[in-house]
Write a structure and sequence with these properties.
alpha/beta; ornithine cyclodeaminase, domain 1; Rossmann fold; 7-stranded mixed beta sheet; 11 helices
């Protein structure tokens, strides 16, 4: 029976402890294949519009596709620019099993991947988290990070102070000591973990403001033109990525320092496949600065969708999954 999962059901069915562990196992078992993402220009004359197809599969068990549309002029219609839907199918018969709210699925798995990286890269005693951004992914980050680190204090910075204050109130109700902040450099200097979830095209976090031992988590930008950190932040850090193919093709935070001759691709210290397998070391000492750059991978969508369908909200989907994947290359 085909089942539709609403955004509320996605949030209820994907608790972070299980989701982080499922993503860890998915990355540990499979790693990266050749990235495949199909993109089509589908807008009307003079009005840009894009359709993205992002597939992944678990041979003989499950396969799925995330459909994403990007229509930049939707703001004038009172609509969001990005819409998405995830379709999960049976890997043996090809029959549809579930349709899932794509935005909720993406937000949830993105925060969980961020926390998974933090498990390997942040200090074990990290207790202050700075959230840069006030959007829907930003709203998910503290709860995810709290699963892997003893996060007690959350600082919130946003371009719109009112939205930052509102989000801080949400975090307070979740049990955090939360406050909105106006001085971003000062907040960066106080944080153990700095987690950015924006679509900025200009650096927000400057390397000169990072104190020793900080973990910098960059999950927002997903095109070569976007960036959330400056060159100095990258150069001061041991850099890790979700997947090599995605990050080194799409992440402006890395591509722009490369273009400037400040940093090189071979300086990446590892990806989530290598971290979860123990093939590359994560944090080596308490004083180093670590940086995780995520642009999103389709393996995360399939793992999350499979967990959701196997949750109490859906039918049993199996307990011992291994994931084969064709990676998408954006966080959308």
């Amino acid at each position: 029976m085909l089942r539709f999962f609403s955004a509320a059901e996605v949030e209820a069915g994907l608790d972070y402890p299980r989701l982080i562990d499922v993503l860890s196992e998915a990355f540990r078992r499979d790693g990266e294949t050749m990235p495949v993402r199909q993109s089509y220009e589908v807008g009307a004359s003079g009005a840009p519009g894009h359709l993205l197809l992002m597939p992944a599969w678990q041979r003989g068990q499950a396969l799925g596709v995330k459909f994403v549309t990007v229509f930049p002029e939707n703001a004038s219609r009172g609509l969001g620019a990005v819409s998405s839907l995830y379709v999960l199918l049976d890997g043996t018969t090809g029959q549809p099993r579930a349709m899932i709210d794509g935005e909720a699925l993406t937000n949830r798995r993105t925060a969980a991947a961020s926390a998974l990286a933090s498990r390997h890269l942040s200090r074990e005693d990290a207790h202050t988290l700075l959230v840069v951004g006030t959007g829907r992914i930003a709203a998910c980050l503290p709860a995810a990070h709290r699963v892997v680190r003893p996060i007690k204090r959350v600082l919130v910075w946003g371009r719109n102070p009112e939205r930052a204050l509102t989000l801080a109130g949400v975090f307070s109700r979740q049990g955090f000591e939360a406050q909105a902040v106006a001085d971003l450099p000062e907040a960066v200097a106080q944080a153990d973990i700095v987690s950015c979830a924006t679509t900025s095209t200009q650096p927000l976090v400057m390397g000169q403001h990072l104190r020793t031992g900080t973990h910098l988590d960059l999950v927002g930008s997903f095109t070569p033109r976007m960036r959330e950190s400056d060159d100095e932040a990258v150069c001061r850090s041991r850099v890790f990525v979700d997947t090599y193919g995605g990050a080194l093709a799409e992440a402006g935070d890395l591509l722009q320092p490369m273009s400037a001759g400040r940093w090189q691709a071979h300086e990446v210290c590892g990806d989530l496949h290598e971290l979860t397998r123990g093939a590359r070391p994560g944090r080596i000492d308490k004083d180093e600065i670590t940086l995780f750059k995520s642009v999103g991978a389709a393996i995360e969508d399939l793992a999350a969708a499979s967990l959701l369908v196997g949750s109490p909200l859906g039918e049993s989907f199996g307990q011992h999954n291994t994931f084969g994947v064709s990676h998408n290359k954006t966080t959308i």
